[in-house]
Amino acid sequence: MRPLPRLAAVAGLVLAWGGAGLADPSWSCGCGAMVTAGSELSVDRETSIVRYDDRTRTEEIVMRLSVRSEARDAAWLFPTPSPAEVELGDRGWFRQLDALTEPRVVKRRKWWGRPGGNETSGAAPGAAGGRGGVEVLGEKRLGPFQVATLASGDSGALAGWLERNGYRLSPRLEGALEPYVRLKWTYVAVKLAPDAGRALIGDLDPLRVAFRSDEIVYPMRLSRLARTDQSVHLYVLGAHRVEHHGPRGRASRVTFAGWVEPRQVAAPGLREFLGGRLFLTEVVNGWIDPETIDDDFRYRYTADRAHREVEYETEYVTFLGVPAGYAIVAGVLIGVGAVIAVRRRGAAG
Predict the structure, then answer these.
(1) Can you tell me the mean pLDDT for 306-327?
(2) Which of 30-39, 144-153, 217-226 has the largest mean confidence?
(3) 293 φ/ψ angles, rounded to the nearest 5 degrees
């Protein structure tokens, strides 16, 4: 497993009303701001799988967050270009894709220096409702989550609906929603169900969101609300390799690119999700300054050039606890000294 800073991608979190005053957002991500009413909250990692079908013009995003908090009232708002279908995902998919894209390990021997760890190459230092109203396109319960799909042409009306239905929307987030309102996007509102009986902690159940889109898009505009740098880790599956367009962080790179087939993964659901041979591009976009986020992430096809990072494991060769290089040199010097001494004795005799 690669220790990546997997913060900030698809889920925009808002406070679900719990009778307390609205706190300032303690964390922002791709689609909004995570806040709690007086509870400490941090996101340890976040990863999303993005699959695009050119034939049906359908995009699917499977998102997973790992959170440390005692909050029981958080929720998130997820904008989509068209009405979305939502269901629970499988957390095992992430482990299988992570294993599939692991760096190639190359062992090399080192005859000088002392053991002190590995040396690594390639490591880095993530239909609208009418104006003035909200249309509820669907509501359902998914595991511990209560999910609603909404359409609205007015960010103020959307904020009002959320508050009346157990959410609390930051005024800053309301303004940040305006670009999506102008584009007539829809929204998936998700919160922990009142009877879920659990805190917002650990690996949350992944959510799988599907919607029609003319392009591969990953909502990011609302991360501009963040107070700290953001990072996004994506597995993008499509007909070809993709290249990133949009805001870019100081540590942005492609960590894997190559063809994958259903037979390479074990989970039946993931094999069905792949459907056939697809090109997988693993993109890590880290340390993004929130002030530079003025658009969503977009991914466009490029040449199908394969890439896999390489990690070098250094094996230090030693002799009696001494680096072998020094031992060899010492041995040569001792041998040369012995030859010279013998010759000198011979010349003296």
Answers:
(1) 70
(2) 144-153
(3) -85, 100
Euclidean distance between CA atoms 110 and 318, whole angstroms? 9
Phi, psi at 336, each rounded to 5°: -60, -40
Q: How far apart are the first and last CA of the chain?
A: 70
Which one-letter amino acid corresponds to residue 52? Y
- The pair of structure tokens assigned to 108 is 């090399």
Residue spans of the domains in the chain: they are 12-316, 318-349
Higher pLDDT, residue 304 or 250: 304
What one-letter code names the amino acid at 141?
Answer: R
Q: Distance between CA atoms of 55 and 42, rounded to whole angstroms?
A: 39
| Residue type, position 32, single letter | G
Question: Is the pLDDT at 62 greater than 70, yes or no?
Answer: yes
What's residue 130's pLDDT?
46
pTM: 0.77
Six token digits for residue 335: 């041998």
Residues 6 or more apart from 127 whose CB is under 8 A from it?
A: 82, 83, 151, 184, 186
